[in-house]
Structures are given as structure tokens and as C-alpha cells.
Amino acid sequence: MYTLLIADDEPLIRNGVKKIIDWESLGFSKIFLAEDGQEALDIIRENHVDLVLTDIVMPFMDGLELSEILAKEFPQIHVVILTGHEEFEYAQKSVSLGVKNYILKPIGAENLYKKMVQICEKLHIENKQRQYVSSMKNQLRQSMPVLREQTLKKIVCSENRDINLYLARAKNMNIDLENGTYEVGILDFDLEKFTPADYDLYLFAAQNITRECLGEEHYIFEDGKDRVVILFKSDTAGADMHDIFYDTLCSIQKTITDTIQLKTTCAIGETAYSANELNHAYRSAKKALECKYSLGSDAVYDIADLNYLEKSFYYPGTELHQLIKGIKIGDEEQIHESINQAFHAGGSISGKNIKMIYIEIVTSLLKELSELKEVSEKIWKWGFDLYQYFEGFRSVADLEEELYRFACEICIQMNSVQANSGMQVIDKVKDFVMRNYKNPELSLSMAAEEASVSMGYLSGLFKKESGTNFVKYLTDVRMEKSIQLLRTTDMKVYEIAYETGFSNPHYFSISFKKYTGMTPSEFKTKD
């Protein structure tokens, strides 16, 4: 609902305008009356008014002067001039003073009502716009902490950004990064043991403790990976400031541990002497954080701590070879040992070297997986997700364990595929034998060529899957076929020998007696 003020020095007009139309139907719940501009101004300064209908010629303060003051002090008030024809030029002049409209007197009730409907529509639109802008400003104020963090994250953590644009945005949020020197630190919390419900609670608590320890002078925000980044500001630079920040991080880490028993690894990067160097300082802090893989978590590391590590990279070529071999032969102990040695055989290595070894192992495992058929999407996803997991591991032991689990799963898949594939090879060879047993030249070599495998592989596989060797299986097939022919035909023994793949009838008789305990002639007579 709106509030109306009618200002006119003539009581008849003042009261007449109030009563001539149904103001409540137009949305007005309260109407004030004033005899002159000064009284109107006093009422407005003490009450909320949306619309002012004012005459021009009034004592003490006329309508134009009132309009000018309202335009400066209350620009949101909608002012309408009530004027006679002889004052029309003044009414036109009032437009330049911010007056929204003017109405010529005298005016009847119907025409006044129509005019006010039009004015109220404008008032309603303007009011909605003001409410929307006010709502947006309120939301902006509520969102300011989040917007500040997002802006700081963009300036510090992103390499590809318009630094000047974001510095200007930061300044509008009362973040001045253009002056002073900054130390950049990262706090990495060990949250893996917590349930999803407790995860956010402990993260929030750790952030609050950090803020309480640092105060308002320094900037704190998340880098998008549940790690807290600190911009430690100082007007002076030097080793003392770096040492002070180191001691501060040690104090924060101890406070977090004592208060909520949350292990925290902290890292300090290189000093940033300008806003342009903040991203480099952040990246160097991330590099220092990698010390947790070599030296352990729950400590405070300085970028200078990396100096102790080997300059050259270690490549685990031998260990990778042993790992793949262990997978293929199904030796879980060898798999575990190979993964462990890949990270430790090179001695003390940098976090970057550890990451390289990790990626090499994941890539090698996926390569082995790609050679298998019918691998589930779940296992493929597990493998590809490993590329994203690295920074989530708390220690080398944790990533070793995950790699071991994935490698063992590949081993299981490989054994399953090999078992199915082996049976397919055996079935194909047996079918080949049934179609070619009459050929006296039929051999293991021919069968291996038919199955597209090596003789050695087929020999071992045939023994494993069939419980007998290839030669005995072929002989057994020929014997069963010869028995069938002896029972169902009048073929002579030597004819049956040739028919079942024997080039020597005498050898056929020896083999037949060995298989049945009788010569072919004895078997035929008995049968």
C-alpha cells in the first residue's frame, strides 16, 4: 500500500481532492494534508510518503521549491503538480526539477481518477524496481563473503585471468592487494577419516580457528579443494616476515590439533612482492605441500625444504616391468612389492617425481586393461579417476594402497578373460581335430596355427584345460572313430587305419590294442 500527501493552501481543493475519488482502490492506505510547502516538507521528513500532489502557488514555500528539495532529499518520491491554466508555464518548468507529472485545475472526479490510475501504474512500476534493486543489494551484501573468496581465489589460484580486472573488483569489495607484500600459505586438512556429515563440520571448524588466529588484517579463502589459503599481509618484506609467517602457521596447526584433533599439513610458498606474483607464490606453496608425500603429513613445510631432495628424476622402469609381470602371472605379492619399490628405490624424491611415477603406473595399468575385452565401465571409471585422485592422498602409503587395489582388480579381470579365452581356443582346436583327424599329417603345429597361438602356449593350455596332451587327445579321437567303423562297417582293418588318419596299419593295430586291450581283429570278432 502507498501513502499520499496533498499540499494546497486552499482547504476546499485540499479536502476536495482527498474525498473526490476512492484512493484506497488505487492502493493508498494513508493520506496526509498540508497547507503549504514547508508543512508538507515537515510531514515528509517524519513520515514515509510515496506520492505528493502539490499546488505551485503557496505561502512560505511554493510547490516548485518543495519539488526541488524533494528531488535532492527524497528522489524516490513521485511528485505531481496541481496547477491552473495561468500557472502552466511554471508547471512545465517543474519537470526539470524532477516532477513526474502535472494536472491542470479545475478537474472533475472522473478525469482525476483516470489520471491518477496512470500515475499509480508508473508509481507501482518504480516501486517494484526499487524493491528489486533493494533486494539485489541485500543479496549482494549477504553474498559478499562468498564473492570475496571467489575473487581472491581467481587472483591467487588462477593463472589465466585478467589480473587488473579482478584487482579492480577486489577493491570494490574493500580488498586492497595493490600495496604491500604477501606471504602465501596453504593448510591441507586430513579429513578422509570423517563421515560426510562430519566432513563439512570439521572443515568449517578448522577455517574458523584459522580466522580467529589471524584476525581481520589477513585474507583467508578456500582454493576449491577443501584447502585453506592464507594471504599474510605486511607493509615490509624480508626474512623476518617469512619467519613470522612460519611461526604463525605452526601456531595455527597446533591450535587446530589441540582444539578438534584434526591433522593439518601447512606449506609456505615464495614471497609475493606484488599482486602479479601472488599466483607464483601460491604455486610454490603447492609445491612445498608435496613434501608430505616424502616427509609425511601433519607438519609445516617451507618451499626451501625442497632443496634437500634430489635434483634428478627417478624413473621406475624395472619396477613397472615387474608390476606388469606380476599382474600377468597373478602374483599379488610381486604386485605389491613392485609398486612399493617404484616409489622408494630412488631414495628421497620430490613430490613432482612421486606424481610422475604415480601417473606412469596408472597409465601402464590402463594399457594392460585396454588389452582385455568386455571390461566393465565401473573399472574403466576407477582407472581414469585415479588421474584426479593424486592430490587427495595423504601419504605415499595411501596412494600405493590404491594402486595395489586397482592392479589386483586388473589381475582378476585378466585371469577371468584368459580363462574364457583359453576355453575358446581349446574348443576351436577340438573342432579342428574332429574335422581333420583323417589327415595323417595333423599335428600340434597345425592346430596352433589354426587357433592363432604358439605351439608352447597351446600345449600348456590344452593340458591345463583338457587334462591330457594334444597327441593323446588326437589318438583317442581316432581310436573312438575306428571303434565306430569296426562296429558299423565291413571295412578291412588297414582301410579303417587309413580312414582314421594312420598311415601305417601296423602302428594302428598297436595303438588300438593299447587303447582297448585287443587287436582290431579280436575286437571285431568279439563284437
From TrEMBL:
UniProt record, GO biological process: phosphorelay signal transduction system
Keywords: Cytoplasm, DNA-binding, Phosphoprotein, Transcription, Transcription regulation, Two-component regulatory system
A GO CC term assigned to this protein in UniProt: cytoplasm
Residue intervals of the Response regulatory domain: 3-120
PROSITE patterns, A to Z: HTH_ARAC_FAMILY_1, HTH_ARAC_FAMILY_2, RESPONSE_REGULATORY
Listed SUPFAM superfamilies: CheY-like, Homeodomain-like
Cellular compartments annotated: Cytoplasm
HTH araC/xylS-type domain residues: 427-526
Entries under Gene3D superfamilies matching the protein: 3.40.50.2300, Homeodomain-like (1.10.10.60)
Pfam families to which the protein is assigned, alphabetical: HTH_18, Response_reg
GO MF term (any one): DNA-binding transcription factor activity
Domain of life: Bacteria
4-aspartylphosphate PTM positions: 55
PANTHER family, per database record: HISTIDINE KINASE-RELATED, TRANSCRIPTIONAL REGULATORY PROTEIN HPTR
Described function: May play the central regulatory role in sporulation. It may be an element of the effector pathway responsible for the activation of sporulation genes in response to nutritional stress. Spo0A may act in concert with spo0H (a sigma factor) to control the expression of some genes that are critical to the sporulation process.
Protein name in the entry: Stage 0 sporulation protein A homolog
Organism for this UniProt entry: Blautia obeum
